[in-house]
Design brief:
Blueprint: H1 2-29, H2 35-76, H3 83-113, H4 117-145
Helix pairs in contact: 1-2, 3-4
Bound molecules: fe (ii) ion (2 copies).
């Protein structure tokens, strides 16, 4: 199952972090002057720590999303909006359009400020996801405004 794979990735990253930290300690203890080696291991260790924490978040997000996916669909099944409800929906969607536009900018800006490449890429991916939200909601507004 995919959830097991995410858990496995978390476990692998956790072991890798511990192993890199151990390696750094050994280097220090031996008092050897290997600055370049130390720098590289430190960088990889920090990236690995980020991977581990991201897998933790991905697991939580994935499980929550699957749960909500079912709940939300059960809630709205069979709903038939009236004309006034449709008008209200358009107003609601327009408010969300503003939020989505703000989030695109927000994540772009966040990406620019983040110092770790993997987190920078993640913020860029979220910005693209927000662009998709903006486009989807825009299309819905167009559809319901002309009904
Ligand atoms: Fe990794
Ligand atoms: Fe969004």
């Amino acid at each position: 199952m995919i959830v097991d794979k995410i858990r496995k990735a978390y476990d692998i990253e956790e072991k890798a972090v511990n192993s890199y930290v151990h390696a750094l300690r050994v280097l220090k203890l031996q008092g050897m002057d290997m600055k370049d080696l130390e720098e590289v291991i430190k960088k990889v260790a920090i990236d690995t720590l980020i991977h581990k924490e991201l897998m933790n978040g991905v697991l939580k997000a994935y499980e929550e999303a699957l749960k909500k996916d079912k709940e939300v669909m059960k809630d709205i099944e069979g709903l038939r909006p009236s004309v006034s409800e449709k008008a209200l929906m358009v107003k609601l969607l327009k408010d969300h359009l503003i939020i989505e536009a703000e989030m695109i900018e927000f994540y772009r800006n966040l990406a620019a400020g983040l110092q770790y490449p993997v987190l920078k890429d993640l913020a860029e991916a979220l910005a693209k996801n927000e662009e998709e939200h903006h486009r989807l909601i825009s299309d819905l507004i167009k559809k319901y405004e002309h009904q």
